[in-house]
Fold:
Amino acid sequence: MQVLVRDNNVEQALRFLKKKLQREGVFREARLRERFEKPSEKRAREKAEGIRRVRKLARKKLERESGISAPRKARASGR
Structure:
């Protein structure tokens, strides 16, 4: 992966690099590889991710078709 530094603006190049890495999933994969994940844990995580992904797509489709957003769940305050 390569990022060009323009006009000696290193901060901007670093922000761009972080965005690229985030999109590629490098940070997420590094966090997953910090410790061993049992196969049963991996299956449960992947199943939960799939369910979240399907629900998110359904919610977006509903928003697009109806033009209104679905009501949000009220969060319980922890304080």
